[in-house]
Design goal:
Distance between the termini: 68 Å
Helix content: 40-55%
Number of helices: 1
Number of strands: 0
Largest sheet: none
């Protein structure tokens, strides 16, 4: 069981390191992390009572 936990922690650590590197190097390799913005107009009906 200890060996399993040790390997799991190693894999999680490697994954976090990979994601950190990918986040910083992503824009240089053509990946955009900017959200896509669009304008939506939704009509609102108010009750006049």
């Amino acid at each position: 069981m200890n060996k399993f936990i040790k390997w799991l922690l190693v894999l999680v650590t490697i994954g976090l390191i990979y994601l950190t590197i990918y986040t910083y190097l992503g824009p240089y390799i053509g990946v955009s992390f900017d959200p896509v913005r669009s304008t939506k107009q939704i009509p609102v009906i108010l009750n006049e009572s």
